[in-house]
Amino acid sequence: MKVLLTGAAGQLGQALIEATPDGIELLPSSRSGGDGLLALDLADAMACSKAVEEHRPDWVLNAGAYTAVDKAEAEPELAHAVNGAAPRAFADAIEEYGGRMLQLSTDFVFNGQQGSPYRVDQKRDPLGVYGASKASGEEAVEELLGASDQGVVLRTSWVMGPVGKNFALTMLRLHREREQLGVVADQVGCPSSTLNLATACWTVITTSCKEVVLPPVMHWCDGGAASWYDVSVAVGELAMDLGLLEKAATVNPISTADYPTPATRPAYSLLDCQGSRAALNLEAQSWRAALRDVLRAIPTSS
After folding, report:
1. Average pLDDT taken over every residue of the chain
2. Is the pLDDT of residue 285 over 80?
3. Model confidence at 235: pLDDT above 60
4. pLDDT tens digits, residue range 26-58?
5. 226 bridge partner residues
6. Rounded to whole angstroms, how far apart are CA atoms 67 and 69?
């Protein structure tokens, strides 16, 4: 089975490569290519279509994305090109040449105002450019591939891994550099370890190959709920326990109003993952245990 992977140089992409199941012919790609990666710029819709036409993958695993939430407010055209037009181009090409698609999406397609976990079937209502661009990517997959069961959207949240750029690694660095940290405590969601998320992605693909029809929209994050403040405190505690820190900084809770950003974040974006976990036959690991595994897996050179 041939799988075209986008975003292979990113934190999730690297985890997906590491966890590739036996029997998969992986075609990893990134914007600039190199080091065994195909060059594929997701901002170029025609290139996305040509990649499907040329390689005829059984699956497109679209893990690449424009994820700079605040920067997207100033670069809406680029965000929509990568997050909306690229999935549409892939889906359109798959409709013509065959194959299937797994589209990674985000909790940011919801406004975060309901105060309870979001179900897979709830209406999208994004707050900013990033969320709107990811919502348009979901819509394209559903519109073009939904009726034929060729497309699956997998939403996730607060992705954190041992490589790349993410909140956990930033907090680890700040714990090393500072004595005091102020971290937002009134935004609630759940971290998603790239290690566990990669397993979920591959399980979608391998399960579907067994003629099992999965729901067209699924949710995956680690178990439990947390604020950014909770995660920051946990990073300090776990890093000390693992010998990555000699002393953790003192973390002070602050409000969203104390830390204004160009993009508005959802205040409560917890995803209801129960049905998806059951469909994939995967149990949830608690976010704190998953975070410990992420920190333990950080390359020693870091």
Report:
1. 96
2. yes
3. yes
4. 999 999 888 889 999 999 999 999 999 999 999
5. 189
6. 6
Residue with tokens 């966890």: 19
**Mean pLDDT within 105-133:** 96
- Continuous segment of H or E residues that includes residue 47: helix 45-55
Contact in structure between 278 and 208 (CB atoms under 8 Å)? no
End-to-end Cα spacing for the chain: 35
Whether the pLDDT of residue 88 is over 90: the answer is yes
Structure confidence at residue 301 (pLDDT)? 64
With residue 252 as reference, give the H or E element that holds it.
strand 250-254
- Say what angle helices 228-241 and 287-296 make with each other, to 10 degrees: 50
Q: Looking at the chain, how many residues does it have?
A: 302
Q: What is the pTM for the complete model shown?
A: 0.96
Question: Catalytic positions, please?
Answer: 130
Count of CB atoms within 10 A of residue 34's CB? 9
Question: Could you tell me the two tokens for 150?
Answer: 């060729």
β pairing state of 188-189 and 180-184 = unpaired
Closest CA to 217 of 121, 107, 131: 121
Q: Cα torsion at 250, 253, 259, 263 (round to 10°)?
A: 120
For the domain covering 2-161+192-221+271-282, report its CATH number.
Answer: 3.40.50.720
181: β partners:
251
DSSP state of 159: E
Angle between helices 287-296 and 167-177 (to 10 degrees): 70
Q: How far is CA 44 from CA 51, 54, 81, 82, in A?
A: 11, 15, 7, 8
